[in-house]
Amino acid sequence: MNPTQPSPAYLHLRQERPEDHYAVESITREAHWDGNWDMQPQICDTHLLVHRLRQCPSYVPKLHYVAELEGKLVGHIMYCASKIVDDAGKTYETLTFGPLSVLPEYQGQGIGKTLMQHTFEKAKHLRAAVSSGDGLPAKYRAILIFGHPDYYPRVGFKRASEFGITDSSGKSYDPFMAYLLYEGALDGVSGRYYIDPAYENLTQEDILAFDKKFPPKEMHIPVSINALLDRLSPSAQKALEGLKEKSLMIMQTKSEREITSLDGIDTNAIETIRAVMREHGCNWGQAR
Hints:
Helices cover 25% and strands 22% of the residues. It contains eight helices and eleven strands. It is globular and about 55 Å long.
């Protein structure tokens, strides 16, 4: 048995405390250090995001949970309030989670899934800040995220486009997904989705300054998409070149459904993509 394999009897979930802040930011830094999608080497920004989100009005501390294994913090999940706004300007209260982080040596053990399932249940009973039209406190309707398009459907997410919901610019794509917090929560709801601007206002200058509080770490250099293209047939190569992506990591934002729909992609190409991604430590595609 893997010594890091958690047992439900030993994995303890609890709300984050102030004294956890540095440890949670360190976990986030380690978990997301290699998550840069650009070919330009950059420092991970996710630990600074955690730090800033705690100070945002949208932050929901009641849903910020950490996972402890034998007294050691190994993961966490945090939430912020978000909203859907329809064409008439009516607002529907929702949530988003992220970052969700698990230390690399403990990944693949079900800790992230456990954190999600636990907090999903908590979120179902949490009241939103805005009251409903009948004067009663409103429940959050759903959790919306931008995430791995073939992983999150395994825990109940569906494409936001199925509900007529787009991002704030009016676009929809497979990584944009929704999880209903109660039956019929998004019936008759459509519109654009908005999250806290803090998710997008992170500069490398600020990140470099913030990162000085942590031990020095070698900057991650992303793997080129050529590591995959060189293994594909000419027709499959041409299909992926049409996406105009430069790094291999960006493939994690592409669903198997989306890639399979491209002209020139066959079963062999899908298996090659899956194998190359796995060789570089990335899960891709639907579960096999």
